[in-house]
Design goal:
Thrombin, subunit H, seven-stranded mixed β-barrel, 27% strand
């Protein structure tokens, strides 16, 4: 994640309060193609004729088995006035016990994905973080063995019908062994349009620079803030092109392209995007899944705004509730998901 000196503090003060081995993957498919760059359109061009001038950076997808690790186990505890990293801050990982991360090899080098536990048997990540072939597991230090996760990608993503449906729900082979103080992230399903102009907390394990290809993740879990500037339901921004808006992609939250604010890198994919009600972020709800990031211009040398897949759309809510209740006639099969299904204990609020 790219995160700027003074940006987190300024945003919080101004606007925060205004608002395991061998798992299986189901529905695996090649990731949808990203949008293309092109010449700037005429201001009078209809939306259908708009040619985007901002290109979505390629998504990195694991090809074989992956094992997520707990951000909690990084034992990060930066001092209260620690030096700011570019566009963000190192997280106190004790405050993020439900966050998971994984690194994996790609032809272009080391990549990363992030995930969150949202119930005693449930992990949420991006669809493109599910391996093409192979299993998904995760482990916590001190626990006897890894958890095996069976992941289901959203069918609209699998079919390439809607790349913004970049969600995967993963069921664990057993209930997570909770420890004192542990809290699951809670999914919020308020309408996507309600997120406009809200401050959003971005989290992840990606790069630390705006510069494309500046290097692999450096082993730190980071947090930072931005503002939701548009959604899929907003009027088409010619810079991004009509293909990212309603009718083509129905779940996008767009952040501001501001070099002073936090934005995603490809390695932050799958991590939770949240809205917090306290300055320390401890009271928060999950409002989306980190999905993609734009190149700032046609040179593809720097990253710009981010795309988050909203949890406040019917495309997500209907699918997730059906996933959590696979046999409606048998309530014993229902899967508890914080904010979505049942009433699990230890849900963050």
């Amino acid at each position: 994640m790219t995160i700027a000196q003074h940006s987190v503090v300024a945003l919080l003060a101004a606007s925060l309060f205004a608002m395991g081995c061998g798992g299986t993957a189901e529905n695996s498919a090649s990731p949808p193609a990203s949008s293309s760059a092109g010449a700037a359109p005429s201001p009078s061009a209809p939306a259908s004729a708009v040619v985007a001038t901002r290109e979505v950076a390629p998504q990195h997808r694991p090809q074989s088995d992956i094992e997520f690790l707990a951000a909690f186990d990084l034992k990060q505890a930066p001092p209260p006035v620690s030096p700011q990293l570019r566009h963000g801050i190192e997280a106190t990982t004790a405050d993020w016990p439900a966050s998971l991360y994984v690194t994996f090899s790609t032809p272009g080098g080391t990549a990363a994905c992030t995930a969150a536990l949202i119930g005693p048997e449930v992990m949420l990540t991006a669809a493109h973080c599910v391996p093409v072939q192979g299993g998904v597991t995760f482990k916590y230090k001190g626990q006897p063995k890894s958890y095996v996760a069976t992941c289901t990608q959203h069918p609209q993503y699998v079919s390439n019908a809607d790349p913004s449906a970049d969600y995967a729900l993963c069921k664990l082979d057993r209930k997570f062994a909770e420890f004192p103080g542990f809290l699951y992230e809670t999914v919020d399903t308020a309408a996507m349009a309600s997120r406009l102009n809200q401050t959003v907390v971005l989290t992840g394990f990606g790069c630390v620079s705006d510069i494309s290809g500046a290097g692999p993740p450096d082993g730190k879990y980071r947090i930072g803030t931005n503002v939701i500037d548009q959604t899929s339901a907003s009027p088409v921004n010619p810079a991004f092109g009509a293909a990212l808006y309603a009718g083509s992609q129905d779940n996008n939250l767009f952040t501001l392209d501001d070099p002073e604010l936090a934005n995603l890198c490809p390695g932050d994919s799958g991590g939770p995007a949240l809205v917090a009600s306290t300055a320390d972020f401890k009271k928060r709800v999950l409002v989306g899944v980190n999905s993609r990031v734009f190149y700032r211009d046609a040179t593809r040398t720097t990253y710009g705004a981010s795309l988050v897949s909203s949890t406040g759309t019917s495309e997500f809510i209907d699918w997730a509730k059906k996933w959590a209740d696979p046999v409606p006639a048998d309530p014993t099969k229902k899967i508890a998901v914080c904010g979505l299904s049942g009433s699990p204990a230890r849900c963050r609020s």
